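Let us work through a complete example step by step.
Step 1: write down the sequence.
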Amino acid sequence: MKVQACLAAVAALSLSAGAAAAAEFTTIPLETVVDAPPEVVWKKVGGWCDIGAWMKTTCVITSGGEEMGSVRRIADRIDELMVAKTAWSYSYSQPKSPIDYHGTVEVRPEGKNKSRLIYTLVYDLGTLPTAEAKAADKERRTKMFTGVLATMKSIAEAK
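Step 2: predict the structure and record it as C-alpha coordinates.
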Protein backbone atom coordinates (compact mmCIF):
# COMPACT_ATOMS: atom_id res chain seq x y z
CA MET A 1 0.00 0.00 0.00
CA LYS A 2 2.85 2.37 0.85
CA VAL A 3 4.49 1.66 -2.51
CA GLN A 4 1.25 2.50 -4.35
CA ALA A 5 0.89 5.74 -2.38
CA CYS A 6 4.49 6.70 -3.19
CA LEU A 7 3.98 5.91 -6.88
CA ALA A 8 0.79 7.98 -6.95
CA ALA A 9 2.59 10.89 -5.30
CA VAL A 10 5.49 10.69 -7.77
CA ALA A 11 3.05 10.56 -10.70
CA ALA A 12 1.15 13.60 -9.40
CA LEU A 13 4.36 15.57 -8.91
CA SER A 14 5.66 14.71 -12.37
CA LEU A 15 2.37 15.77 -13.98
CA SER A 16 2.31 19.11 -12.17
CA ALA A 17 6.00 19.74 -12.92
CA GLY A 18 5.40 19.01 -16.60
CA ALA A 19 2.54 21.50 -16.77
CA ALA A 20 4.59 24.23 -15.08
CA ALA A 21 7.52 23.69 -17.43
CA ALA A 22 5.58 23.65 -20.70
CA ALA A 23 7.69 25.15 -23.46
CA GLU A 24 6.30 27.73 -25.87
CA PHE A 25 9.00 28.18 -28.49
CA THR A 26 8.95 31.11 -30.87
CA THR A 27 11.11 31.91 -33.87
CA ILE A 28 12.24 35.30 -35.11
CA PRO A 29 13.53 34.93 -38.69
CA LEU A 30 15.26 38.05 -40.01
CA GLU A 31 17.01 38.54 -43.34
CA THR A 32 18.31 41.14 -45.73
CA VAL A 33 19.99 41.23 -49.14
CA VAL A 34 23.60 42.43 -49.17
CA ASP A 35 25.37 43.92 -52.19
CA ALA A 36 28.42 41.68 -51.93
CA PRO A 37 29.22 38.03 -52.71
CA PRO A 38 28.84 35.54 -49.83
CA GLU A 39 32.56 34.93 -49.33
CA VAL A 40 33.11 38.69 -48.85
CA VAL A 41 30.13 39.02 -46.52
CA TRP A 42 31.23 36.07 -44.39
CA LYS A 43 34.80 37.36 -44.18
CA LYS A 44 33.50 40.68 -42.81
CA VAL A 45 30.72 39.49 -40.45
CA GLY A 46 31.16 35.75 -39.96
CA GLY A 47 33.68 35.77 -37.14
CA TRP A 48 32.58 34.17 -33.88
CA CYS A 49 33.15 37.39 -31.91
CA ASP A 50 32.12 39.85 -34.63
CA ILE A 51 28.87 40.22 -32.67
CA GLY A 52 30.69 42.69 -30.42
CA ALA A 53 30.93 45.15 -33.32
CA TRP A 54 27.33 44.54 -34.43
CA MET A 55 25.97 45.16 -30.94
CA LYS A 56 28.51 47.81 -29.95
CA THR A 57 29.71 45.84 -26.92
CA THR A 58 32.48 43.49 -25.91
CA CYS A 59 33.01 39.91 -27.02
CA VAL A 60 35.75 37.59 -25.80
CA ILE A 61 36.31 33.96 -26.77
CA THR A 62 36.67 32.20 -23.43
CA SER A 63 37.10 28.64 -24.69
CA GLY A 64 38.19 27.20 -28.03
CA GLY A 65 38.67 29.34 -31.10
CA GLU A 66 36.15 29.61 -33.93
CA GLU A 67 35.11 25.97 -34.00
CA MET A 68 32.28 23.83 -32.64
CA GLY A 69 32.27 23.85 -28.86
CA SER A 70 33.82 27.31 -28.59
CA VAL A 71 32.41 29.68 -25.99
CA ARG A 72 32.17 33.45 -26.29
CA ARG A 73 31.25 35.96 -23.58
CA ILE A 74 29.27 38.99 -24.70
CA ALA A 75 29.09 42.20 -22.66
CA ASP A 76 30.95 40.43 -19.86
CA ARG A 77 27.76 38.60 -18.83
CA ILE A 78 26.30 36.36 -21.57
CA ASP A 79 27.99 33.06 -22.42
CA GLU A 80 27.22 31.43 -25.79
CA LEU A 81 28.28 28.02 -27.05
CA MET A 82 28.80 27.32 -30.78
CA VAL A 83 26.68 24.24 -31.51
CA ALA A 84 26.86 24.08 -35.33
CA LYS A 85 29.03 25.48 -38.11
CA THR A 86 29.24 25.44 -41.91
CA ALA A 87 31.37 27.40 -44.37
CA TRP A 88 28.97 30.38 -44.17
CA SER A 89 26.99 29.86 -40.98
CA TYR A 90 27.07 29.05 -37.31
CA SER A 91 24.51 28.35 -34.61
CA TYR A 92 24.85 29.00 -30.92
CA SER A 93 23.02 28.42 -27.66
CA GLN A 94 23.05 30.10 -24.29
CA PRO A 95 23.53 27.05 -22.05
CA LYS A 96 22.49 28.72 -18.79
CA SER A 97 19.53 30.60 -20.28
CA PRO A 98 16.13 30.05 -18.65
CA ILE A 99 14.53 30.68 -22.06
CA ASP A 100 16.55 28.00 -23.91
CA TYR A 101 17.87 30.66 -26.30
CA HIS A 102 19.46 29.77 -29.67
CA GLY A 103 20.55 31.76 -32.71
CA THR A 104 21.86 31.15 -36.21
CA VAL A 105 23.83 33.51 -38.44
CA GLU A 106 23.97 32.51 -42.10
CA VAL A 107 24.95 33.86 -45.50
CA ARG A 108 23.55 32.45 -48.76
CA PRO A 109 24.31 33.35 -52.39
CA GLU A 110 21.61 35.59 -53.88
CA GLY A 111 22.40 36.13 -57.55
CA LYS A 112 25.46 37.74 -59.05
CA ASN A 113 27.56 39.55 -56.41
CA LYS A 114 24.73 39.51 -53.88
CA SER A 115 24.04 37.58 -50.71
CA ARG A 116 21.21 36.95 -48.34
CA LEU A 117 22.19 37.56 -44.72
CA ILE A 118 19.96 35.62 -42.31
CA TYR A 119 19.76 35.87 -38.53
CA THR A 120 17.30 33.52 -36.83
CA LEU A 121 16.47 33.40 -33.14
CA VAL A 122 14.61 30.56 -31.40
CA TYR A 123 13.66 30.69 -27.73
CA ASP A 124 11.07 29.70 -25.16
CA LEU A 125 8.41 32.27 -24.26
CA GLY A 126 6.86 29.82 -21.79
CA THR A 127 8.70 31.33 -18.83
CA LEU A 128 7.01 34.71 -19.29
CA PRO A 129 3.85 35.28 -17.24
CA THR A 130 1.36 36.81 -19.68
CA ALA A 131 0.51 37.05 -23.36
CA GLU A 132 1.36 40.76 -23.18
CA ALA A 133 4.81 40.05 -21.72
CA LYS A 134 5.44 37.44 -24.42
CA ALA A 135 4.41 39.84 -27.20
CA ALA A 136 6.53 42.66 -25.74
CA ASP A 137 9.58 40.39 -25.41
CA LYS A 138 9.30 39.18 -28.99
CA GLU A 139 8.79 42.74 -30.27
CA ARG A 140 11.84 43.96 -28.31
CA ARG A 141 14.08 41.19 -29.64
CA THR A 142 12.79 41.66 -33.19
CA LYS A 143 13.55 45.38 -33.06
CA MET A 144 16.99 44.86 -31.52
CA PHE A 145 18.09 42.16 -33.98
CA THR A 146 16.65 44.05 -36.96
CA GLY A 147 19.09 46.79 -35.97
CA VAL A 148 21.88 44.21 -35.58
CA LEU A 149 21.16 42.88 -39.08
CA ALA A 150 21.23 46.43 -40.52
CA THR A 151 24.64 46.98 -38.85
CA MET A 152 25.91 43.68 -40.28
CA LYS A 153 24.71 44.69 -43.76
CA SER A 154 26.47 48.04 -43.45
CA ILE A 155 29.73 46.37 -42.38
CA ALA A 156 29.49 43.77 -45.16
CA GLU A 157 28.87 46.39 -47.86
CA ALA A 158 31.60 48.78 -46.71
CA LYS A 159 34.42 49.25 -49.21
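Step 3: interpret the result. DSSP finds four helices and seven strands in the chain.
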